[in-house]
Amino acid sequence: MNYAELAAALHHAGERLSKHAAKIEGESMGRAAQVLSSHLVKFEELLDAYIASRKSGELLLETLLRSPSAKRHLTIDLLRDGLRDVIGKRLKSSELRAAKREFIERVHEAGNQDEAVKFLKDAFAGAIHLEPGGKDKASLQREYVDLGRLSDDEFAQEIEKWSLGELRQLAETNGIRFTDKTNRQRLAGLIRRYAQRAVFNISAAG
């Protein structure tokens, strides 16, 4: 649905109706007007709820980007990953303050505030969990093999607990190639496949 076209059509119909309102008669027109009026009331209720929800999401996102966690952990790289993950777009700004403004504006334009908030919360939680210095290489290698031994359902449940940053660290430590464009779902799939292969190789060697 093109809402700009709908708005233009409603505006045009409203102008014509206003111009000829005093002359319109007939039961068929009256019934049609009642049906339209009923639908407009319902549509306005839905529109009001949507606008209120969007404003709430915008406020939450902006508040999160000013939070103490953001001051400690927010970087341009994180915003770059977030914009790519949430709306599939590339961040253009190279300075943090400008990058924050661009991130907010482009997320608002796409209407993906809730997804952006979730990404940032996961990223901040992951940063806190990894301080200081993150997990060591041996721990990540053990967890990698453990993930390979899980069933599909168990793996899906476990991987939900990992932030994107943790998944990237796990993949990098265990030699899995990925790029900045690799999203969370794709990265989890790569880890699943190669972790299972690692378990198979360990079993075959034993």
Would you kindly provide a written description of the structure presented here, covering whatever features stand out?
With 206 residues, this protein is an all-alpha fold. Among the domains are: 57-130; 137-205, no CATH class. It is 78% helix and 0% strand. The chain has helices at 3-20, 27-64, 68-73, 76-87, 96-110, 113-130, 137-149, 152-159, 164-173, 184-205. The mean pLDDT is 82.
Describe the structure concisely:
The chain has 206 residues and is mostly helical. The chain is built from ten helices and no strands.
Number of strands: 0
- Number of distinct helices: 10
Distance between the termini: 60 Å
Whole-number radius of gyration? 26 Å
**β-strand amount:** under 5%
Mean pLDDT: 82
Taking the sheet with the most strands, its summary is: none
Low-pLDDT ranges: none
Task: Specify the overall morphology.
Answer: elongated
Q: Keyphrases for this structure?
A:
10 helices; mainly alpha; 206 residues
Task: Give the topology, please.
Layout: H1 3-20, H2 27-64, H3 68-73, H4 76-87, H5 96-110, H6 113-130, H7 137-149, H8 152-159, H9 164-173, H10 184-205
